[in-house]
Amino acid sequence: MTLLNQDLAEPSSLSTVSTAGLLEKIEILRSALRWASRLERADIEKLLRQANALRDEVMQLSTKERFVAAAAGAGAAARPLPAGERRRALLARSFVFEGTFGDNPDLLDALEVAEKAAPTDLPVLIDGESGTGKELMAKVIHANGSRADRPYISVNCGAIPENLLESELFGHRKGAFTGAANDRKGKFESAHRGTIFLDEIGELPLPGQVKLLRVLQSHEIQRVGSDETISVDTRIVAATNKNLRQLIVDGTFREDLFYRLSVIHVTLPPLRARKDEIPLLFAYFGAEAAESLKRQPLRMTPRLRDFLLAYEYPGNIRELRNLIYRLSCLAGDTADLAHLPADIRPRSAPVQAQPDQPPVAMSAGALGEARRAASDEAERLFLERGLREVGGTVAELARRCEMNRPHLQMLLKKHGIRSRDFRPTGNGAA
Ligand SMILES: Nc1ncnc2c1ncn2[C@@H]1O[C@H](COP(=O)(O)OP(=O)(O)OP(=O)(O)O)[C@@H](O)[C@H]1O
Ligand SMILES: [Mg+2]
Predict the structure, then answer these.
(1) Any idea which ligand is nearest the CA of 139?
(2) Could you say which of 56, 107, 134, 347 would form a disulfide bridge with 11 (CB–CB 3.0 to 4.6 Å)?
(3) Residue of 317, 321, 322 with the most ligand 1 atoms within 8 Å of its CB, for mutation
(4) What digits encode the pLDDT tens for the residues 239-277?
C-alpha cells in the first residue's frame, strides 16, 4: 500500500510532473487497487482522491504538452499553410473544436490564438458581430484549457438589472437588501477554479465596471452586505459586439478595464467576409438539421441557392443556421425562394409560387391564377409533410385525412409525389 501512505503532490505543485513519474504512480495505484476488496471504506476513499489527483496531473500535463506544441508551431506561422492543413494540424494537437466549423483563414487565426491562450489564465476579449460565434469561441477556450472539467459560468451583462448586478456577480449576505432572504453565492464564486464568460461586456454599467476591475486586480470579491473578502480563482473571458474603443471615446467604457480584459484579443470575422465558406456551412447545417428533424437532407432550387450564396447575413452564422433549419422544416422535396422568411424574400418571389413560374401579369385573371398557384403549393406541401409523418404509407395518410385512397393517389400523381420516397428505407427523395 505504498501509495495509500504517501500523499500525492497537490495539482498546484505540478511543475516537476513528468510522464515517467506519473506512470509510476499509476502503476502503484493499480497494484493497490488489486487488493481493494480488503480495504476499508476510508482507504477506498483515499485511493479515489489519489486517482482524482492523478487524473488532474495527467490533464495538466496534456494541456502543457499542447501549449508547448502550439508555441513551437508559432514559429512556423511565418510560412502560411493551406487552410485544410491548419485545421488538420489543430486536430492532430488534440484541439477541441466544440463544433466550430470552417476553414476561413481569419477563423483559423482566431482558433490558433484560442489554442495558445487556452492553457494560460490570461483574460481573453472576443469581439465580432452578433452571431459570429463569440460564445462558441469562449467554450472552445474553456474546453482546451486546464480548467475544462471545472465550471464554465456564463453571465449576460446586458440582461441583469443594474440594481441586481453586484449581487448577481459577487453574491450577497442574508438581509443585505430587501428580498435577500438567504446568503447567496455570486457567479464569480460559482466559477471558482473554472471560467466565467462575461457576455455583452459593453453593456456593463460604469459602477459594475469599477467592481469588475477590482476583481481583476485583486482576485478577491466581497458579497454584498459583507466585509469578508473571498479569494476567487476564475479565468475571465469577455465578449462584445460593440466597438469598445468607441465606447471608451464616448465615456461609457473604462479604458483601464478594456486593457485588463483584452490581454488576448480575438476578433471573429463576419460571415459576409468569409462567403467562401457558405456552401460548406449549407452542407454542415443541412446534415445537422436533417438529423435533428429526422428529414431527408435539404435540397434547394438553383435560384434559392444563388440567393443564399449572395445574401449578406446580417445575423451571421446564427442566421444562416436558422435559415437552413427553417428551410429543412418547411420545404417538401426541394426548398425555393418562397420558403424564405418574408422579410428577406426577394420581391420577385411570390409566396408559395411554383419554382419556375414566370412573374404573373396584372390582368383580370391574375389574382385567380395566383390564388390557384398558392393553393396548389399548399396542397403539395401538406401532402409531402403528411407522407413524411406516416412514413410513406398512402393508406394511413388517407385514413388520417378521411379521404378515399384513389382520390389521394390522384392528388399525389398530380403533384408528381412518389410515396416510396418517404418510406424509411426509400431513397431518391433527398
Ligand atoms: N464557426 C462556427 N461553426 C459552427 N457553428 C457556429 C460557428 N460560429 C457560430 N456558430 C453557431 O452559430 C450560433 C451563434 O453563435 P454564438 O451564440 O456563439 O454567437 P455570438 O457571437 O455569441 O452571438 P451574439 O452576439 O448574438 O450573442 C450558435 O448556434 C453557434 O453554435
Ligand atoms: Mg453571444
Answers:
(1) 1
(2) 56
(3) 317
(4) 999 999 999 999 999 999 999 999 999 999 999 999 988
